[in-house]
Batch of 2 targets.
Target 1
Amino acid sequence: MSWAAHEFENYFLQKHVGLRASFLGIVLGTFAPDLFTKALVYESSDPAQFHRGWPGVGLTHSFIFGFAFAVIVLAVTRSRAWALGILIGQWAHVLTDIADTAGVMPFFPFSLEPVTISMWKHAAAEGRYGDAAAYYSSLGGAWDLFWLVVVVLFARRTLRADYFRQVVVRADPRAWGWLHRTFRLPEAALLLLYRGLIFYGLGRMTVWFLYARLEARTPFEPLWAGPRYITGNDLSDAGPLEVLVRTTVGGVLFAAFLYLCWRLFVRRLWERGTPTAASPAPAVP
Amino acid sequence: MSTPDTWGPGPGAWAYVAAFLAYVALGLLTRSVVLNWIVGPLFPLLALYVVPRAVAGLVHRS
């Protein structure tokens, strides 16, 4: 699993979607796969299988989960900005988690084959603290750092106050307005809330890295498929060609499923939804 | 051409740095108390807005 990368990627996604999606929707989307399951993962007898496999809660790390979540939100709230934010955020989470050894099933239920590039070991079997120490002893920590650098280099303007005002709030005035009114938060406080995720990502990256070095004293092995002191936990014995074929078939079926859903009911939900702030204003007759 | 508003109203860069150092120290000492999905993202709001405001309110009252 990825740790702080999921916080950093919110700002990178925000820069690219601009006024089209809600930042809070993106955040909910990136949190969604682990939101209801992460606590249970550490209690499981086979954490990798439970977290990413089937049977298990691996479906939360599939594109169909984000799609279903976004469609439900669109049907209930009629907010295109929130539906789009949730979809993009959840799909980004799925893609990010391809990097550990357990991988994800992106095209569940059309393919149950886990897809992974095995950059570092999925180490939830070590418990929460052991998982953190293993992650920040492997390329996982470098992955977090990579996302932080990406945000600093390419999306730092999303952290500015004027960007928050002109893009983030304008894209989702109802939610930010509600926070402002309900909790009596002025703009200064809303900005602190908005920047809280990058703060949290950087903070937990620093703390867990220091914990791994100073307290757990786990060997620092930023090598491919490290750290070596964790036993392998791949969920599939399939070779690369087998994975490629199954995933391609799953991907084609999933695309057909999306198209069918769009034609049957999603287009109608989308059309009755509230246009995003990026939508062109209706022509005046 | 107007200058971009980087920090906006409220605390400046040094306040964020101080809050960050406090967060790291608390994280190392307490771990799960602050390193979770609720307290973590809310920490800047709590440390730089809610707590100072509450303290100022108490001082003003006494």
Target 2
Amino acid sequence: MGETLTIRLTVNGNEYDRSVEPRLLLSDFLRHDLHLTGTHVGCEHGVCGSCTVLVNGESVRSCLMFAVQADGAEISTVEGLATPADGSGIPHPEDADLHPIQAAFRESHGLQCGFCTPGILMTLVPFLEENPDPDEEQIREALSGHLCRCTGYQNIVKAVRLAAGRMRS
Amino acid sequence: MSHDTTFAAPPAEAPARPRQVGASPLRNEDRRLLTGEALFVDDVHLDGMLHAAFVRSDYAHGILKSVDLTAALEHPGVVAAYAAHDLGDYWEPGPLLVPPPPIEQLEFHAATQVPLARDRVRHVGEPIAVVVARSRYEAEDAAALIEVDIEPLEAVSDLEGGLRPDAPRIHDHLESNLAAHVIQRKGTWEEARESAHRVIKRRFWYDHGASAPMENRGIVADWDARSRELTVWDTTQAPIPIRNGLAAMLGLPQSEVRVIAPFIGGGFGPKIMMFYPEEVLLPWISMRLGRPVKWIEDRQESFFATTQERGQDHEAELAVDEEGLILGVRDEFLCDTGAYNPYGLTIAINTQCTLLGPYRVPHYHSEFRMVFTNKPIVTPVRGAGRQHGVFVMERLLDRAADELGIDRVEIRRRNYLTPEEFPHDHEIIYQDFRPLVYDSGNYAEAMDRAAEMIDYSGFESGVRAAARAEGRHVGLGIVSYVEGTGVGPYEGARVGIEPGGRINLVTGVGTQGQGHFTSFAQIVADQLGVGADEVEVVTGDTARFGWGTGTFASRGAVVAGNACHAAAVLVRKKVLTLASSVLGAAEEDLDLADGLVRVVGSGESVSLGDLAARANPLRGAVTPGTEPGLEATAYFGPERGVTASGVHAMILEVDPDTALIRILRYVVVHDCGRVINPMIVEGQIHGGVAHGIGNAFYEELVFDEGAQLLNASFMDYLLPTATDVPTIETDHVETPSPLNPLGVKGVGEAGAIPVGALFAQALEDALDIDGFEVREIPLSPNRLFELIRDAREEG
Amino acid sequence: MLIESEFMFDVPPEVVYDGLLDPDILASALPGTDRLDLTGEDRYEGEMEASVGPVTAARFSVVVELKDKVRPESFDMHVDGKGKAGFVNGIAKVAFEAKNGGTVMKYRADLQVGGRVASVGQRLLESVGKMMSKQGLEAVSRSIDARLAPADGGAVATTGTGLASSASLPATGGKRKILLIVLAIVAATLLVLAL
């Protein structure tokens, strides 16, 4: 291993201090150093969107960023998305602990193999905060930075609409 | 009327229909996937785990003169590096997974892939050496230090050229690059041609693309010498055959090898059992080093190292009478099989059989040659050759309709097999080695519904007229297809009830996202009177269930589903027998619901959990001739494949100046027999159509004349995105299959199959330019632009 | 990959043809070239390190051989470049024709490009190739101008507009440039390999 740098960052509210090689990708750091394997890697060149996480609240492709660039940042991954909540509006009691977007994906069959799903969820969180009442075109535009081979996107769009409606009320 | 994922409740007149099958309970697996808890292969982390990286050929064809590992071995962090000669007796070509079916006078030549190239490289990306290091980063650093000397040879990149006598020979043990030559006949084509009113002849090119699942392949192998167990996590669609094959190769008893296919991030064919070089090498390396080893394919590697599907060059003739009735079809085609052919004839036979479609074809002559080329290996990808056949037949019918002045829907209707004609024997052999006999279907009904949904009769005066008034070019396409699904040999399942009342279902097939954790649970739930969410499903772990083949050929629901059903029926029988003695009531007076067995008409009941505890007593004796526990294992092997079918229709807008397209509507009417879970079936269709749209208009693996792939990234190989795929409106026709107790047919591949033919017809209809004909797929805006320009220049 | 083009010199073919033997100036013409040596009759061997944008350097070794020489009409240039990111090999056919007291040089390079460059760099190959050819020629023009200026005094300054400027180059610069142009094409191809 070559030269290492020490970084300190917060992931899903937990603080981490780690020594890393400057070339270590943020995606590999999250998955293999912190064992937060919910963030997936599908292309390593910033096209598929599977590795999307939030860095200081913004959607970022973690395969296009080095871990050292995240020094001092606050990161959220899919593992931190489901927070104990009141579950308001979610009709399935077993899903009351999920984020409304997660619950809507399940209800709408917005995932099949589920590999691309965590990245899509991490794009949708800030998207719906900024666009609480998006129309279909806006939703498809927001999703267009993600590749999904299973669903044909239709039920993802449906899930976003369902989640948006619930989150507004 | 909205067909968008809304489902009618099960019909009231069918009270016998069980309550879970046919409903759409939410998926049992989703919570794990949505929260990031689901285990995929790359998520496996083991203490002391090493990482492998491969050195691959840059050349499509060449003599491998030397491989020098020295510098790599000296690199910090490197534990081992291997080239072919280091493998000793372990170096052997992989198995021929699908030998040729029993067809007379068939010529077949096998050449299967090798673990590491030894003296020859035959496609770009073929592995030459492997480095094992503490981290993947170090392994890749070291791999770059390996010196490989290759003397380039001329590469075979096209099919006709590959068969010329002077073509470079790819496999020295064969006399030519011919991999197979097969003729199948029904009736006498010449007779059909002679009596025909018209014979339509065309040449077609149809290329298929990459499977491109979002998860690349990966393997983790861990040999534990003390427990004598080799554990392999593998992104495979077929863990049990992989277990069996690895045990044989490594000289281990099958009981010491455990292959786990955990959550798989999509497969679409190429993750089937392949005995990929990496799959064969990682376990060997782990045993040699005594440490766990991981290899995860990167996206660029996957464009070469994962199998693909590819081009077919057809020359076809259709003989029709004055009424447009099909008298016969003759089709001759070349089929690219890539550098090796472990899947034998599967794809070409699928093409040959699927071409016949839902039609009555009295005379058929079909002949194909499979050709080795210096391109990556070809194995089935979603559709697996079927779309090629559908394209040829549907295009010929479109031409016949034009020439005879018959409406395109009408010409199809006239030729459909009717429900009374089933079972229908096409008198040729299918990929499952069985005669191609359709079990059931109702093609005209599917066409009627699709035509109604897309408003076929009102299109000209409605949508088209309105578009024309605005100077827009809008066209309608409508095509039919069938899909042979659910082939053998068999699958198995074990169902058990635990004393606490938990219900377990274990089956051998893996899962790649099709919802098996839910649809299989529904099948079992119905027999045991519980909810689908109360059945815990385990798939794809050979330590839990060791018999079966895998998930491919749209066979999961048909073959494994019926095995689950059979096992659940046996457990139900055990439950009733025991409950009968516990409750002192006749079995026929008992009812299973809500996890209880009740005596009908009395308040007495006993829970499944209590029964399970009684069936496994700590004292007393289990009655001789019976078994302890409420558990049963059962298998299902279909007599032959079942035939799903459907009609797709679309309205497409195209700008003749820019060749850009927009899909305005897309309708699917599909028949997969009895529907287990409409929500899941719809999802499969949506995904299949999206895949088909990609194949038709966006995705193309572009090779140069030296067989170099020119677009090996998602920047250049374009998967459809959310802005390319329209909302798909669906409806179902149900013609239950008589060949299995559940009456189901497969659905996984269907959506992708007719899309090329549909695009072609809709484009012609939209553009209405004399001489503009689509005889090739995939198209792209560029290619479409050229075709439009050429037609205009000639016109 | 086929690269085909032509341009004009104001000196006769013999002069152009004979000027192809000095590799000294080539290193300055090819960005990243560490070494370019005449290692045998009509054989040049070189090492270059190519990097584009943020992509770290990748090393390539290049062998160029001149064959089938017919003075002053034509020769073939056999190119073989190899690196970790891929390879390029093939033949550049170069022909000269007298015209209006000068020379039309026509070249047609049929190059096989393979490995990572072919598979992921294809989209950029042509545009980067053009850009690199232009940059290489501008560098050559500048260094030739620098050399010629003291000797020739009033030599026409070449202002680095790529191929267009080449026709106005003085003879001494022009004859060296032929090889440079072909090598620049090769270099451009190699640079793309590093992506």
